[in-house]
Write a structure and sequence with these properties.
Structural class of chain C: mainly alpha
Number of strands of chain B: 9
Number of helices of chain C: 8
Strand content of chain B: 25-35%
Chains: A mainly alpha, B alpha/beta, C mainly alpha
Number of domains of chain C: 1
Shape of chain C: globular
Order of helices and strands of chain B: EEEHEEHHEHHHEHEE
Oligomer: heteropentamer
Largest sheet of chain C: none
Largest sheet of chain B: 5 strands, parallel
Structural class of chain B: alpha/beta
Number of helices of chain B: 7
Shape of chain B: globular
Bound molecules: protoporphyrin IX containing FE, adenosine-5'-triphosphate, magnesium ion
Order of helices and strands of chain C: HHHHHHHH
Chain lengths: 223, 206, 246, 223, 206
C-alpha cells in the first residue's frame, strides 16, 4: 500500500518535472494575479494592506484550482485511470498519492512564494509569517477538496469552469479563516491561535473524508 | 475456474445491443467475440471487466456474482482497451514498470527491458512514448501481457496498429496463456489464426 | 391495512399517483397563498411604522428563505437514501427538488433586496444571513450544473448525490464560518431568531404562507418527477402504452 | 468566405449550446469570484466601492481566460484542426469565427451580468453604465488576444496555466483603462471619453492583428 | 498530374527514418506504403500532406514544389489520419456537413444522408458521435470520401477498426477513385486486396 503511494507520487512528480513549465506557471499565475490588483484597484498603501490577505488567498485558491482540472483528466484520457481502477490497490491510496503530488506541485510553491505578497502590499514581517503559516495549513485543504471536484467533473466538457463552480463555495471557510488569521494578527487580538486551530480542524476533516469521496466519485465517473 | 454470463443484456441510450446472452468460458479457453461495427463488442468487454455496470442479467466467476466479488475478481483481470493506458510523457520502460507495480508485481529492471525487447522496442525504451509511432505505442501497452500474472485477459482489438511481425508475436503470447490454463476474451476484425484448439466463437448480431 | 411502500418506489407505480396528486397540491397551495397574502396584507397591524408598509414583504421573504433551506435538507436526505438503497426514485426526488429549492432561495434574496432598498437604502449588504443564503444558491446551482453536465442519468444521479453528501458535511462549516468570521467574538455574540417576539397575528399569516409554499413544492416536485420518469423510461413498455404518449 | 464564417460560428455555438452548462458556468464563475472578495477582504462599504472596478475586471479576465483553453484544443485533439488547416478556406476567417463564438459565449454574458457587481459593491447607476460600456468594448479584446495565447500553447501539457502566463501581461492595458473608466466616472474628471476611445483603439488594433497572429500560431502548432 | 518525391528524407529527433527517397505517383495510380511499425509511414504521409515540414529533399506536384504551391496544392488534398477529425459532440450528419462546407463543397442534406447510409450509419445519423462505436466513428470520418471531390487522397491506415463489410466498401470506394483518375496514397498493415491494376508498392526499411 505504501509502495503504491510512493509509486504514484513519484510518477506524478516525474511527469510534472518533465514539463517544468507546469509547476512554474502555477507560481507565475499567483504572482501575476497579485500584481494585477494594484493596477486595477489603485496603489493606495493602506488600501493595499487591507486587501492583501484576501487577495493572496483568492489568488492561491484560483491557482490551485487551475491545476486541478488535469489532476485526473489526463489519466482518464489515456486510459491509465481505467488501469488504476482495475488494479488491486485500494483506490483511496492512489487518490491520496495524486493529491499529495498536486499539493507538492502547487500548494507548497505558493507557500514559499507568498512573502512576495508581503513586499508588494507593504505587510510587516509578523503578518507575512502568519500568512505563510495559514497557507501551509490551508492549501492542502484546497487540494483535498479540489480532488473531489476534479473527480466529479471528469470527462465532462467545460470541466474546467464547472470545477470552479462546484469548488469555490466549498473553499469559503478556508478563505475566511485563512484571511482572518492575517487580519487578526495585525489587530493584535491574539485570536490567531483559534484561527489556526480551526484551519487545522478543517484539514483533518478533509484529510479523513476527501479521499473516500474522491474514490467514490472516480468509480462513478468511469462507469 | 469459469466465467459465466447468464441472461446478460446491454443497453446503451435507448438501444438494446444484445439481450439474454449466455456463455461460459473455462480456464484454458479462448473466447473470440465477433460481430459488425457497433454490435456491442466493446460494451460487452467493458461489462465483463467491471468498467461498465451490468444492465440486466448476471456475470458469475466461479459461480459467484462479480459485482459481489468486486476486488477479488478485479485482481484476476488484465484489461486492454482501445486506449493504451500508458502515459505519453513517460518512457516505455517507466510505463511498464508502473503497470507492474500497480498490479502488485515486483519486477526487476532487467525483466522490464527484456519484455520491451521481446516486443521489438529495443532502442526505444528511453524515448517518451509520445514520439513513438502508433504501432510502437500499442506494443508498449501489450508488453505488460508478457509480465502479467493474472488469469483472465480481456483484450479489445489488440491487433490494431500492429505490423505483421507483431501480430504473430501477440498470437503466440495469447496462445501460450491459454495453453497454460488462462482465459482470454478478445475481439478483432482481422482474421487471426490463433492455433490453439480451444477457441469458442461468440457472434453478436443485431 | 398494510401498505407496501416499496411498491410505490417503482417509477411505473409512482407516475400515476404523482399525476393524480399534483394538481390538488398546486390548487391547495394557490388557495392558501391567497389566504395568507390577504391576511398578511390587510389583516395585520401597521405596527412597524418606521418601516412603513414594506415589512409586509416578510410574508414572502421569510417563508421562501425557510423553504430554500429546508428543501436543501430534503435534497440531501433523498440523495442519501438513493446512495444507501440505490432506488432510482430517490435520485429523481433529489433532482426534482433542486430547481424549486433554488427558486425559493433566489426569491428570498430578491424580495430581501426589494425590502432592503426602501428600509436600509441598499439593495445588498454583506450581512451573514444574506451571504449564507447566497452561498446556498451557489450550492444549488453547482448541484444542477453537475447534473445537467452529465448525459448518462445513472452517472449524473450518483455523481450529484456525492456532491450533495459533500455539501452535507460542508454546509454547516460554511454557514458557521460566514456567521462567525471572527470565531472569538462569535462565541459571545449569539444571534437568535426573532420569531418569538413577533406579533402572533403576523406569525400566523406567515405560517399560512409557509404551508402554501410547502404544498406548492410538493406539487411542482411531483410534476417534475413525472417528466424525469418519462424522459428516462421512454423505451420501456409501460411508458409507450401511456395515453399521453400516443 | 462569409459562408465559412457563419458555418464555423454556428458550429461552435451549437457545440456550446449542446452543453448549456458551459455557458452558464462562465457566468457563475464570474459571480462567485466577485462574491468571494468581500468574504476575504472585508465588507466595509467604502472599501468595496473602491475595489469594485478592479475586482470586476479581474474576474472578467479570469472567466474569459478559463474558457479560452478549449478554444482550439478540442479541435486539435480530435483532428478537426488538421482538417481546417488543410481546407481551402482562409484560416483567419476560421479564427475570427471561433473568436466571435467565444466572445458571444463568454464576453457578452459578462457584460449583461455586470450590473450585479454594482449591487454587491454599492456602485451608483452611472458607474454601472460605465462599467458595462467598458466591458462591452474590452471583452472582445480579451477574446482576440486570448486566441493568440490559446493557439501558441496548443497541445502543450499544462496549457491552461501557460495561457494565463502568456496572456495576463497582455491584458494589463485593458485592465488599467477598463477599470480606469469606472473609477474616473466616479471622480467626475470627465476623462471617461479618453479612456473609452483608448479601449476602442485597442479593440481595432487587436481586431486587425490578432486573427493573423493566431492563424500563424496555429500553423506552427500543428507542424 | 504527378506527385513526385525527390531525395526526400525524414528525421525525427535524432533518428533518420528514411533518406533520399524517390517516387512518383501519376493520376490513376495508388501508392501503397508498407513497412514495420515505426519505420516512418505516418511521418511520410504527414509530410506529403504538408502537415509536417520537409526535412530534406523536395516534393513536387506537377513539377512545382508543394511548399511554393501552398494553398493551391492543399486544395487538391483530402487527408485522413489516425485521428478521425470529427467532433464527438456533434452528430454524424452535422460533422459530415461541416467537413463538406469547410472544403468548399455545397451539399444537400439528402446527399449527406445518402453518404452516411452508404457507410452503414443509417439510424445513427442523429446521435452524437461520442456514443458511437470505434468503427462507427471511423465510418463517419470515411463518409466524407464519398462526397469529396479532390484529386489526391492521403489515408493513414484507413481500414483500422472497420469490420469486414466496411473494409470491402472502402476498397471499392478507393478503387473507384483511382480508376476515375484520382491519386490515392495509403498505408495499412492488413492484407487488403485492392483489385485495381495500378498499385505501386513502396517499402520503407530501416
Ligand atoms: C438584500 C436584502 C435581504 C436579504 C438577502 C435577506 C435575506 C434573509 C434571509 C436569508 C433570511 C432567513 C434567515 C433566517 O431565517 O435565519 C431572512 C430573514 C428575515 N429577514 Fe431578511 N434579507 C434582506 C433584507 C431584510 C430587511 C430589509 C429586513 C427588515 C428590516 C429583513 C428582515 C428579516 C426578518 C425579520 C427575517 C426573519 C428572521 C428571523 O427569523 O429572525 N430582511 N432574510
Ligand atoms: N446513447 C446511445 N444511444 C443509442 N445508441 C447508442 C448510445 N450509446 C451507444 N450506442 C450504440 O451502442 C453501440 C456501442 O457499441 P460498441 O462500442 O460496443 O461496438 P463494438 O461492437 O465494439 O463496435 P466496433 O467494432 O466498431 O468497435 C453502438 O452501436 C452505438 O451506436
Ligand atoms: N524525437 C524522436 N527521437 C527519436 N525517434 C523518434 C522521435 N520522434 C519520432 N521518432 C521515431 O520516428 C518514428 C515515427 O514513425 P511513424 O509514426 O511515421 O511510424 P509508422 O511507420 O507510421 O508506424 P506505425 O506502423 O506504427 O504507425 C518512430 O519509430 C519513432 O520512434
Ligand atoms: Mg469496439
Ligand atoms: Mg503510423
Amino acid at each position: 500500500m505504501f509502495k503504491t503511494y510512493i509509486l504514484i507520487l513519484q510518477r506524478d512528480l516525474t511527469l510534472a518535472l518533465r514539463h517544468k513549465t507546469e509547476v512554474l506557471t502555477t507560481i507565475f499565475f499567483f504572482i501575476i494575479v497579485i500584481s494585477l490588483f494594484p493596477l486595477g484597484v489603485g496603489i493606495d498603501k493602506e488600501l493595499l494592506q487591507k486587501i492583501a490577505p484576501g487577495v493572496a488567498w483568492i489568488a492561491a485558491l484560483l491557482a490551485s484550482m487551475l491545476a486541478l482540472e488535469r489532476l485526473f483528466s489526463s489519466d482518464y484520457e489515456d486510459g491509465t485511470l481505467e488501469q488504476m481502477l482495475l488494479s488491486p490497490q485500494p483506490l483511496f491510496v492512489i487518490v491520496l498519492a495524486k493529491v499529495s503530488a498536486h499539493w507538492l506541485l502547487t500548494g507548497l510553491p505558493l507557500v514559499l512564494i507568498s512573502p512576495l505578497v508581503g513586499l508588494q502590499y507593504h505587510l510587516d514581517f509578523d503578518r507575512v509569517i502568519m500568512m505563510m503559516l495559514a497557507l501551509l495549513i490551508g492549501t492542502p485543504i484546497l487540494s483535498l477538496l479540489g480532488a473531489i471536484g476534479a473527480a466529479l467533473t471528469l470527462g465532462l466538457r467545460g470541466g474546467g469552469v464547472l470545477i470552479s463552480l462546484l469548488l469555490l463555495p466549498l473553499y469559503i471557510p478556508v478563505l475566511i479563516y485563512g484571511a482572518g488569521v492575517v487580519v487578526d494578527s495585525a489587530l493584535f487580538n491574539n485570536n490567531t491561535e483559534t484561527y489556526l486551530s480551526l484551519l487545522m480542524g478543517f484539514l483533518i476533516l478533509s484529510l479523513v473524508l476527501s479521499p473516500w469521496a474522491t474514490a467514490a466519485a472516480l468509480r462513478i465517473a468511469s462507469e | 475456474m469459469t466465467l459465466q454470463a447468464h441472461q446478460l443484456s446491454c443497453i446503451q441510450g435507448d438501444r438494446i445491443l444484445f439481450e439474454e446472452l449466455d456463455f461460459s468460458v473455462k480456464a484454458g479457453e479462448l473466447l473470440l467475440i465477433e460481430g459488425q461495427n457497433g454490435c456491442g463488442k466493446t460494451t460487452l468487454l467493458k461489462t465483463l471487466a467491471t468498467i461498465r455496470q451490468i444492465d440486466a442479467g448476471k456475470i458469475l466467476w466461479n459461480n459467484q456474482s462479480i459485482t459481489k466479488l468486486s476486488d477479488d475478481y478485479r485482481d484476476q483481470l488484465t484489461w486492454l482497451g482501445h486506449l493504451n493506458g500508458i502515459k505519453l510523457d513517460l518512457t516505455a520502460a517507466e510505463n511498464l514498470k508502473i503497470s507492474c507495480t500497480l498490479n502488485g508485481l515486483s519486477v526487476s529492471d532487467l525483466a522490464v527491458m527484456e519484455a520491451l525487447e521481446e516486443m521489438g522496442l529495443y532502442g526505444y525504451e528511453d524515448l517518451p512514448v509520445r514520439v513513438l509511432s502508433q504501432g510502437q505505442k500499442r506494443r508498449t501497452a501489450l508488453a505488460y501481457l508478457l509480465l502479467s500474472q493474472t488469469l483472465i485477459w480481456i483484450l479489445d482489438e489488440p491487433f490494431v496498429a500492429l505490423d505483421v511481425k507483431a501480430v504473430k508475436l501477440l498470437q503466440k503470447v495469447i496462445t501460450k496463456h491459454v495453453e497454460q490454463g488462462g482465459i482470454v476474451i478478445l475481439t478483432t476484425h482481422q482474421e487471426v489464426g490463433l492455433d490453439t484448439g480451444r477457441i469458442q466463437r461468440l457472434r453478436l448480431t443485431r | 391495512m398494510r401498505i407496501n411502500w416499496f411498491k410505490y418506489a417503482a417509477p411505473a407505480n409512482f407516475y400515476p399517483i404523482a399525476g393524480a396528486l399534483a394538481p390538488w397540491f398546486i390548487a391547495l397551495a394557490g388557495v392558501l397563498a391567497i389566504i395568507g397574502l390577504y391576511w398578511g396584507f390587510f389583516q395585520t397591524p401597521d405596527i412597524l411604522t418606521d418601516q412603513k408598509q414594506y415589512y409586509r414583504i416578510i410574508f414572502v421573504h421569510v417563508a421562501s428563505a425557510w423553504m430554500g433551506m429546508w428543501l436543501y435538507a430534503m435534497l440531501v436526505l433523498w440523495a442519501l437514501i438513493g446512495i444507501i438503497f440505490n432506488t432510482r426514485l430517490s435520485y429523481m426526488f433529489a433532482a426534482a427538488i433542486a430547481p424549486t429549492g433554488a427558486m425559493f432561495t433566489f426569491l428570498s434574496l430578491w424580495t430581501g433586496a426589494f425590502w432592503g432598498e426602501p428600509s436600509w437604502g441598499t439593495w445588498w449588504d454583506w450581512d451573514p444571513r444574506m451571504t449564507s443564503m447566497l452561498i446556498l444558491l451557489f450550492l444549488y446551482i453547482g448541484y444542477m450544473a453537475l447534473q445537467s453536465a452529465i448525459d448518462d442519468p445513472r452517472r449524473s444521479d450518483k455523481a450529484s448525490s456525492v456532491l450533495a453528501m459533500v455539501g452535507l458535511v460542508m454546509v454547516p462549516v460554511i454557514y458557521w464560518s460566514v456567521n462567525c468570521p471572527n470565531p472569538a467574538e462569535c462565541a459571545a455574540l449569539h444571534q437568535s431568531s426573532s420569531m418569538e417576539q413577533i406579533d402572533p397575528n403576523i406569525r400566523n399569516a406567515m405560517f399560512i404562507m409557509v404551508a402554501s409554499f410547502w404544498i406548492y413544492s410538493f406539487g411542482v416536485i411531483m410534476l417534475r418527477i413525472r417528466n424525469i420518469i418519462l424522459e428516462r423510461e421512454k423505451q420501456t413498455r409501460w411508458v409507450q402504452e401511456l395515453k399521453e404518449c400516443q
